[in-house]
């Protein structure tokens, strides 16, 4: 695969030279400043503590760490849910999962379920503004009908998988759910181009597709969503990365994602657009820990490396809305706008991306629609703070809420694989002094508990028809 990239880079630099030659042959004319591009790199099931810039000592992530050095690293960046589908829907719509009609995980047999077409996505809004829009990687917002696919939600083109790489024929979950799944397909604009996939090559394939998109669209504004498959099970890495990390196949897959980030950034710089591209690196939820709590016969159903991720110093992980499930890496880079090396402690959430991008483009939010996200442009530019709102976590039902320093967690475990909680009553934590959610202080603050419960109940009442 590396030889493939050497060829690609020869083609890209040749294209750059031709573009520069054409530019110098034309008389100079006044032009408007270039519009902002948007690149969102989303890992799948990457833990809060899995990157060097977030404290990892077992994963080498120099390219992602460089993004943090050149931009802003949030310590309190959140997603709306601790599983795939609801977070991705919330990112693209700026709305919480129940509000946008995508509260639960979609399975291969979920052929009638999808992100509702009445929802207006960030891709659609940018497409209408003249942007080239592209998805490289995992979709997971509907696959049963053409109107469920990315092109029906604002993406010009899509290369990737319709759902996670473990939802494939022969996986133990297929047997447990008593369903019949097809081999995992790779799709190009809705057509199957490979089946089954090779999980070891996914990061290479998505990277090549993303870089190819940049090479073709560097001369116009674009939105590129690079949605990696890794380190979600079934974990894989290409031969150049296998057995190279200090943390098994899980670490190998993360170090390959870091390499991928470097390649995409190199493409932006090669075409002179890295300073006009807002880059976000994040994850759709925290790392998986729940399998470790189960008997050996259950663990054998899953890839052993699934438990190698780190959400340190947070509690919990994927499937639950403790901090380890919903607080994720959040790194923003935009030279000349975002000061380099800034560590930001104010909270932000994935639903903020849509209103933030529209703020930069001076595009108003669509009317007659409730948006849960808020622009964080003042935060990114160190000019002010985000409008203070509560963060509600969960999918089909709200199971957690952060309000200022307070975090309320309901005693509900959304997966049969998770460990038993210490209480059957709501748990309350002060995140200012207890980031690990180890000291339940609900009994000391009953009024805070009641207040936060009311907010969660109000949200569920508002969204019960969806």
UniProtKB/TrEMBL annotation:
Its EC number is 3.1.6.1. Keywords: Calcium, Hydrolase, Metal-binding, Signal. It is an enzyme of class 3 (hydrolase). It comes from the Bacteria. Residues 37-362 form the Sulfatase N-terminal domain. GO terms for molecular function: arylsulfatase activity; metal ion binding. Belongs to the sulfatase family. InterPro entries: Alkaline_phosphatase_core_sf, Sulfatase, Sulfatase_CS, Sulfatase_N. CDD domains: GALNS_like (cd16026). This is Arylsulfatase. SUPFAM superfamilies: Alkaline phosphatase-like (SSF53649). Gene3D superfamilies: 3.30.1120.10, Alkaline Phosphatase, subunit A. Residues 1-25 form the signal peptide. Pfam families: Sulfatase.
């Amino acid at each position: 695969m590396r030889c493939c990239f050497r060829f690609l880079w020869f083609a890209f630099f040749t294209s750059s030279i031709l573009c520069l030659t054409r530019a110098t042959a034309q008389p100079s004319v006044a032009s408007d400043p270039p519009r902002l591009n948007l690149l969102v790199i989303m890992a799948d099931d990457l833990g809060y503590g899995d990157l060097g810039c977030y404290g990892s000592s077992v994963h080498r992530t120099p390219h992602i760490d460089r993004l943090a050095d050149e931009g802003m690293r949030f310590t309190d960046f959140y997603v709306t849910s601790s599983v795939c589908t609801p977070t991705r829907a919330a990112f693209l719509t700026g709305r919480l999962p129940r509000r946008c009609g995508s509260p639960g995980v979609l399975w291969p047999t979920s052929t009638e379920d999808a992100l509702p077409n009445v929802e207006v996505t960030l891709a659609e809004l940018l497409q209408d503004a003249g942007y080239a829009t592209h998805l490289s990687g995992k979709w997971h917002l509907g696959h049963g009908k053409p109107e469920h696919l990315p092109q029906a939600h604002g993406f010009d083109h899509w290369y990737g998988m319709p759902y996670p790489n473990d939802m494939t024929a022969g996986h133990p979950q297929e047997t447990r759910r008593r369903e019949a799944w097809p081999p995992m397909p790779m799709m190009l604009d809705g057509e199957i181009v490979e089946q089954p996939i090779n999980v070891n090559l996914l990061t290479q394939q998505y990277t090549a597709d993303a870089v190819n998109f940049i090479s073709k669209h560097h001369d116009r504004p674009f939105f590129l969503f690079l949605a990696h498959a890794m380190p979600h099970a079934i974990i894989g890495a290409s031969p150049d990365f296998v057995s190279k990390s200090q943390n098994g196949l899980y670490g190998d897959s993360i170090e390959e994602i870091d390499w991928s980030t470097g390649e995409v950034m190199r493409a932006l710089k090669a075409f002179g657009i890295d300073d006009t591209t807002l880059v976000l690196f994040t994850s759709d939820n925290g790392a998986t820990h729940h399998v470790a709590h189960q008997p050996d016969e259950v663990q054998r159903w899953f890839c052993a490396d699934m438990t190698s991720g780190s959400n340190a110093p947070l509690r919990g992980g994927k499937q639950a809305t403790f901090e380890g499930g919903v607080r994720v890496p959040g790194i923003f880079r935009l030279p000349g706008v975002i000061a380099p090396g800034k560590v930001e402690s104010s909270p932000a959430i994935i639903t903020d991306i849509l209103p933030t991008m529209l703020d930069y483009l001076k595009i108003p939010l669509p009317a007659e629609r409730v948006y849960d996200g808020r622009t964080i442009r003042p935060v990114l530019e160190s000019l002010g703070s985000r409008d203070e709102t509560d963060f509600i976590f969960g999918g089909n039902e709200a199971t957690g809420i952060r309000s200022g320093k307070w975090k309320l967690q309901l005693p509900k475990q959304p997966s049969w694989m998770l460990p038993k909680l210490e209480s059957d009553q709501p748990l309350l934590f002060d995140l200012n002094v207890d980031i690990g959610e180890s000291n339940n202080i609900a009994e000391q603050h009953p009024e805070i508990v009641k207040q936060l419960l009311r907010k969660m109940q109000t949200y569920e009442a508002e969204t019960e028809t969806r």
